[in-house]
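pasting for the record
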Amino acid sequence: MKRVRLLLAAVILAFSLSVLSAPAASAVTVTATPTSASVIVDGEVVVFEAYNIDGNNYFKLRDIAMVITDSTKQFDIDYNAETAAITLIPDMPYTTVGGELSTVQDTEPRAATISSSRVFYGDEEVFLQAYLIHGNNFYKLRDLGALFDFSVMWDGLNRIIKIDTAYRYFEDKTAAFYDATINYDENERYHIMSLTLEPYAYYDKYNDVYAQWASQMNCNFTTYSANRDSALLLDMIEISAQYGVDGFLIDTYDNYARVDEILSELGIPWMPNNAAPYDYSSATLYHPFLSLDREILGAQMATWAFEYAKNTWPNASPSSIGMLAFDYSPLSNYQRFIAGVVNTWRESYRDTVSNLFVIDLLNSGGNIITASTLDNNPDIKYWLVCSYSFNDADGATRAFENRSIVENACIISYADETTIDYWGSYTSNCWKANAYHDIRLYTEPKICALYNMMTGTITADQLWTEWILESAGYSYASLQIPHSILDRFNYTEYLEWVDTTTGMDYFDYPYYGTQFPLYATVPDYYTN
């Protein structure tokens, strides 16, 4: 633990030195607004005098020391009046001096200047971000959490700051991702089970990757399929727990409520595998999960296609360019995707809306419907195609090839690993790009989140808090994953980047250091 704390302190030191080394930093005055959020410490509501500056909350050192004394993260404070130095003494109960936890609540904004007080953690000087506000030093809560290794969480839905000394400090964004700097062999060896209701073959592909992640994190990994027997799946949870399974990756469809109930009673963490742990009848989300906003995906793919048209056919008039977007009416996933494509087309080609063809593939495939649309619109010279289905993109490709108009067409599809084999087989056609997310990156946050829950670092409600969809009333995160647009020229670079990022060496392509998105940007509608 001491090693972790000193490492965190070093990170704070590096950051704060860059702030404090600015020549005029101490003279800068900022506005400190009284914190309006409630504060819960180890399950109890505590009233603090605290301020918010630039989105971060600042507390008095002695107030924090007092409320966490007698915990495993307790610390005492010594003040040297001659040197104006503050010494933080870890693992010691706090000695009260009077005036802590003042019940006087400030309601007016205050002027704040950067504090010049020196702070020591034991014998080592640390540089914590702090401000002087009406004669008192206020310290950034997350810096204190990092230094003393207690959890600091923000519940945006209920506007609550949660301080929990039973859990370690972590940064929200990277809390459940693989950390190559950790020696997992030094930690306890956990047993993870992938438990699925359906015996689908694609689970084998996921489980192979989960097994590699488990190996890298010094965990045992086993799998079991309940073969569509919901009662057996629930029984297997309890049986496996008796045989020492420490955490589950679970996929079911109609009984996540019971899964969550059983595992809560057993005190065993879990994560959903693929299916969202959601009860549509009660609109209840039972656990964090990985989601995909298909409307954002459709917009991303359409935007790439429009840039391709602009760069490849610079002299083409808007009226000579058409767009095919494949829909499949029985599935709502397609409608979200189509909405992203259509809205993006209307923004970029608002004067040629009639050149956008949204085609329902309910009764026909990509090849036939593309051929028919081309034959019925001979005045359109250039074609863009956005497909949510790999097979339909393949069908559209053959329709263009059969008419020898490959050079005047551009197809982009949402695709999986099959894309790699496809591009390895064909040398030139109009299928130009795919929106892609490697399975190694897709499985990483799920199994790494589970690992962190097994170690006691975090709880399910602490995962990816910026991804909690407050407008829907959810208590758990729906983390979105970024997709990269890959073409024939950058897909090998992407695969090698994933090799480097995950430590799983699948490919042997040259890598030149190109970086791709690892984290998605939180959409505005998550908080608005």
